Amino acid sequence: MNQAQQLLEFIDNSPSPWHAVDSTVAMLQQHGFTPLLEKEHWQLTAGKRYYTIRDQSSLIAFVAGAQPPSQCGYRIIGAHTDSPGLRIKPNPVQKKGEYLRLGVEVYGGPILATFADRDLSLAGRVSVKNGDGPQAFESRLLRVDESIVRLPNLAIHLNREVNQNGLKFNAQDELPLIFSIAEREETHFKGFVADALQVDEAAVLAWELAVYDTQPGAFFGAHQEFITNSQLDNLASCHAALLALNETLDEPSAATQVIAFFDHEEVGSGSAKGADGSFLDDVLSRISGALDEGSQCHHQAIANSYMLSADMAHAWHPNFADKHEPEHQPIINGGPVIKINTNQRYTTDAHTEALFVSICEAAQVPYQKFVNRSDLACGSTIGPMSAARTGIRSLDVGNPMWAMHSIRESAGAADHDHMIRAMAGFLRC
Questions:
Q1: Are residues 260 and 305 in the same domain?
Q2: d(CA 372, CA 379)
């Protein structure tokens, strides 16, 4: 319960990918990790702890192994910092009758209906001018704590078929969020952002702002055995990886232990800081170059490595049992789920599956296996693209959850501890 409570607090403090990395850095610095800048030369020492950030929302942290990477390789846990939702447009203000609305763009594949009638606010990063010249600006994190926007439902009297046909929104016309009464001049959005950051309006150059739910995470169930929050997919995996790495810090490892958190997974990862970009490969190459000697050492390191791609999994839903494969029905609080797909939407193969099963059995952690129904399309993760880019043997796992991509997701309180222990065993292997 203590670790699940820590997870809920981590998510509550991380309403955007940029805040998630900021929260991660705070935890890493508490444990003696040293920052590295990609534009500087790296000098690394065996046994020391490091982290580097790319564009504020992707991060890789590592503990340099006691042995050169060519001898013992890397143990990598990968996850992602972003979640599907709504993002504020560059020119968002729309006057509609007596109201001001904020135009939004759909990010990834959220369940849009779950955003209705929630206490919503904004969080992300803002580029603020701080001098003269084209590069004289800085990035500032913004989080508005109080609820300032809302997506009100249409009354059932005007939408009689909503319970039969489901709640649907046209992304252009029906998703803009209620922001203010139009006659109030102080509600001009750019001025609102400037006031929140305590800067002049003219200094605000650009923003990337996500819509988030201000309701904090909570436990529920007759025995408080479940947890609910936004962004469990996939900040739960990030937090578990962080705690697993911290758990092994006092145990010298021959292999170099790595956690890699990427932005943009929900939109395909095809960016400079996404898992389909060069970030992980760049960092591993630099580690090998700093800790090893010889032109073939990095290739040897890759051949000695494993990656665990951690992303949340679909739990069996008792109200929709026909949506699940009958012989593969992961249960919440039943332990980590090994995700398998013969078409390589997940990377697990017989070798890496056996490795994870052995790790779980040694740590006395329950585990489950998931295969999608053969007549339903399978989702994917950062695993396949990371494995293809790096050549590292990989598997896909995740904790079971309900309501994936809802603004209010649910999972098991005990499963967070299960995953932490399994990940710690993976880092030690």
A1: yes
A2: 9
Q: In Å, what is the CA distance from 396 to each residue of 249, 278, 306, 344?
A: 24, 20, 11, 10
| Integer Rg of the chain from CA | 22
Task: Find the farthest-apart pair of alpha carbons in the chain and give their distance in angstroms, rounded.
Answer: 74
Same domain, 94 and 149: yes
109-137 per-position pLDDT tens digit: 999 999 999 999 999 999 999 999 899 99
Kindly state the DSSP code that residue 249 receives in the 8-state scheme. T
Please report, for the domain that includes residue 151, its CATH number: 2.30.250.10
- CATH number for the domain including 20? 3.40.630.10
Structure tokens at 40: 């500087």
Residue 423 and residue 235: Cα distance in Å, rounded?
Answer: 15
Strand order in the sheet with 226-229: 218-220, 226-229, 409-412, 400-402, 313-314
Closest by alpha carbon to 230, among 423, 399, 415, 7? 7
Shared domain check, 355 and 246: yes
**pLDDT tens for each residue of 336-349:** 999 999 999 999 99
What are the E-state strand segments in 182-301? Answer: 204-213, 218-220, 226-229, 256-262
Residue 198 to residue 196: CA distance in whole angstroms: 6
Domain that holds residue 91: 85-213
The helix/strand/coil state of 131 is: coil
Helix (H) / strand (E) containing 54: strand 49-54
Q: Are 86 and 211 in contact (CB under 8 A)?
A: yes
| pLDDT digits 0-9 by tens, 53-86 | 999 999 999 999 999 999 999 999 999 999 999 9
Residues 332 and 295 in one domain: yes
Assessment of whether the complete model's pTM goes beyond 0.85: yes
CA 155 – CA 149 distance, rounded (Å): 19
CB 384 within 8 A of CB 371: no
What is the token pair recorded at 94? 């729309």
How far is residue 230's CA from residue 408's CA, in Å, rounded to a whole number?
Answer: 5
Q: Report CA-CA distances (Å) from 101 to 114, 115, 198, 223.
A: 19, 15, 23, 42
Q: Please count the other Cβ atoms lying within 10 Å of the Cβ belonging to residue 403.
A: 17
H helices of 261-342, in order, are: 279-291, 297-303
Joined together, the tokens standing for residue 264 give 């943009």
Count the domains in the chain.
2
